[in-house]
Amino acid sequence: MSRNSDRRPGKGAPRIKTSNPESTDRLQDAEHEVGYGKPPKHTRFVKGQSGNPRGRPRKPKPRPPRLSDALSDKFLEEEAYRSVALRENGKGIKLPATQAVLRALVMGAIKGNRLSQKYFLEHVAREEERNLEYKVARYTRMEALKRTGEQKLAGHRRRGLPPPDLLPHPEDIVLNPVTCEAYVSGPETPEEVHFHKHIVQLRDHVLLRSAHDSERPEKASAKLKDDAICTYMVLAQLLNQSLARRYRWLDNAEFHLFIEYQFMPRRKREQRIAAEFAQLQATRPRPLHITPEEEWEMDRIFRKNFAKGARPSPS
Predict the structure, then answer these.
(1) CA separation for the pair 87, 92 (Å, rounded)
(2) What does 228-276 look like in DSSP terms, one character per residue?
(3) Are both 179 and 237 inside the same structural domain?
(4) Which of 159, 185, 211 delimits the end of a domain?
(5) Distance set, CA 142 to CA 155, 176, 184 (Å)
(6) Rounded distance between C-alpha atoms, residue 96 and residue 78, angstroms
């Protein structure tokens, strides 16, 4: 054979001899056009051979239910509050299954079904009796708690001792013997006490700012001055009304305090405003029963009215 017998026809490069089939496939891939929808030959599926020889993994078998799972309670709850579609007065409505059953019971009683009437009236009587027993028990308990607290306060006053920390405070326990209602109109935990005291400080601080703005420089417009005074005064009254009764101002105390603030030297008022604001910021409690978004919004309003700048949104 001639010297150039191992060369491709029309090509100057010599052929590569190999006995490895994978290398041969890769060599053929070089001649095969590869692109979108045209994968290399050595990666294509082979006829008669699965692309996933191990197969799909088996799903884990669910654990059989047990008596301790109490599935009956779960099913009962789901069925009791499942929404059902009904028609009433020609209109489609959706009600929980429990309410739908009670409505059907009431309608049957109204139409004269004796069993429905008997069961419905007995059910209402039982509920009224149960609620009355609960109200009487709560009223009795709160009345005893109020009486015991008042006795403790009187004993401390006779001995010249400071009043004890009672939660709830006897003055915050409201009793209505006519309706047999009893409730607490004030703090019941140390956290709520701290929150109320903070609101008291904030209320007095707002009144101080109102008195300070009433003596703005002469160059300030009268309308701007009046708007600032009214804004702070209204805010102070709103804060005062949000407090329990024993924390509120008594006998026009806010007007006497306002006049006292007005007679302060302006420089002293400015120093007091700065000191009180720093203390309010340092001792501010986390508001009770609100979401982080509502807390951020309250903080934004507070800083907008009393300081420059605000924290970035939690989002």
Answers:
(1) 4
(2) HHHHHHHHHHHHHHTS-GGGS--TTHHHHHHHHHHTS-HHHHHHHHHHH
(3) no
(4) 185
(5) 20, 11, 9
(6) 10
Instruction: Specify which residues 38 forms β-bridges with.
Output: 35
The mean pLDDT value for 119-134 works out to 94
- Rounded Cα distance, 243 and 202, in Å: 12
Host domain of residue 296: 285-315
For the stretch 222-269, pLDDT in tens is: 555 556 667 888 888 888 888 888 898 888 888 888 888 888 888 898
Q: Is residue 171 domain-shared with residue 256, that is, in the same domain?
A: no
Q: Do both 309 and 260 map to the same domain?
A: no
Q: Per the domain annotation, does 119 fall within a domain?
A: yes
- The gap between the terminal CA atoms of the chain, to the nearest Å, is 81
Report whether pLDDT(18) > 80.
Answer: no
Residues 255 and 268 in one domain: yes
Tell me the C-alpha distance between 281 and 267, whole Å. 22
Q: Structural domain tally of the chain?
A: 3
